[in-house]
Write a structure and sequence with these properties.
With 343 residues, this protein is α/β, with parallel strands linked by helices. Helix content is 42%, strand content 20%. The strands form two sheets. The protein has a seven-stranded mixed β-sheet with strand order 5-4-1-2-3-7-6, sandwiched between helices. A five-stranded mixed β-sheet has the order 10-9-8-11-12, with helices on both faces. A hairpin with a 4-residue loop joins strand 8 and strand 9.
């Protein structure tokens, strides 16, 4: 099967071509520069940019894969959750292509796709899914809009253990960056500055760290940073203190993410942890999660950076697994699912 997948849930337009578990192409057009001026994603601008980028991105993906439209055996797209205008562009375009080609169409849950992105291994081309080594795992999905822990008992069988009750980890990074005058998106900038900072310089709260549940909360941490900056106005005039501040905030976020993930894995009796989402590109998080898993004798699979942020490859890989497992195609009359909960 050769499958074309589209991802337009937020501010990245992506098209991927997948065949027999291999990612033949994964093209992404980012809108970061467009939205940086506003300090965050502007939904209307995102939708317009998807309209502008979609055909060039699809054309580039097909060309890179050496595949013609006539060779496609199925089409997939992100159905939700996401921004309404953004989702609509990719979802309806994919439905239209499936209708014209007379091929199966599959709407994919964005978060569910993240669950399987750590199983896409890099190779000489773009990547190949390594489901031959699949094992039950606790999966951490951590991004700008979502933070959750999911127990994946088997392929296509999962259960949400906990999620954020307010701000996501990535949102906390970005809002902290805005408070201290860093450009959007602030996550990568904080990661870079924190490398030269002292993570113990300032003591910020670790929300829900010791709670028995698997939920997250980062709103209080963000508020703590706000008051800290207000009460220490001179701190933003000292570059080293800014680096220390970034390192201290990052340490608080990472400690919570790592501790709750390891605890959930032990409680559920699995021997594997996976992690995905844009925030997993953070170097401190990757390093500390790896160290914690090694100490607990847990296998760790981290999504490659190019498959961590929003991308169509993960959409295509999951769609292919669902179709091969005999899951029914999505109706060509189906609509987007803005707040589609991961069951």
């Amino acid at each position: 099967m050769t499958l074309l997948a589209l991802e337009t849930s937020c501010d990245e337009t992506s098209a991927a071509v997948v065949r027999d578990g291999a990612v033949l192409a994964n093209v992404v057009a980012s809108q970061i520069k467009l939205h940086a001026e506003y300090g965050g994603v502007v939904p209307e601008l995102a939708a317009r940019e998807h309209l502008r980028n979609l055909i060039p991105v699809v054309t580039a993906a097909l060309a890179e894969a050496g595949v013609s439209v006539a060779q496609l055996g199925a089409v997939a797209a992100t159905q939700g959750p996401g921004l309404p205008g953004a989702l609509m562009i990719g979802f309806k375009a994919a439905q239209a292509m499936a209708f014209v080609l007379g091929k199966p169409f599959l709407g994919v849950h964005h978060h569910e796709a993240h669950l399987y992105s750590p199983w896409i291994s890099p190779d000489a081309a773009s990547g190949r899914a390594d489901f031959g080594n699949f094992q039950p795992n606790v999966s951490l999905i951590v991004s700008g809009g979502h933070t959750m822990l999911v127990l994946v008992e088997a392929e296509l069988k999962h259960r949400v253990l906990g999620e954020t009750v307010d701000d996501a980890a990535g949102e906390c990074f970005d809002k902290t960056g805005k408070l201290i005058g860093l450009p959007y998106p602030a996550g990568p900038v904080i990661d870079r500055l924190a490398e030269q900072g002292n993570p113990k310089a300032y003591d910020f709260p670790r929300p829900l760290l010791h709670d028995a549940n698997d939920d997250f909360s980062f709103s209080g941490l963000k508020t703590s940073v706000r008051y800290f900056v207000r009460d220490n106005p001179g701190i933003l005039d000292d570059n080293q203190k800014i680096r220390d501040l970034c390192a201290s905030v990052q340490a608080a976020i990472v400690e919570v993410l790592v501790a709750k993930t390891i605890r959930a894995a032990k409680r559920n009796g699995v021997h594997c942890v996976t992690a995905s989402g844009g925030v997993i590109c953070n170097r401190a998080l990757r390093a500390q999660l790896a160290a914690a898993c090694a100490k607990a004798r847990l296998t760790l699979r981290l999504a490659e950076n190019k498959f961590s942020t929003d991308n169509a490859a993960m959409i295509g890989i999951l769609a292919e697994r669902k179709l091969l497992a005999g899951k029914p195609p999505t109706s060509l009359e189906a609509e987007i699912a803005l707040n589609w909960a991961l069951a």
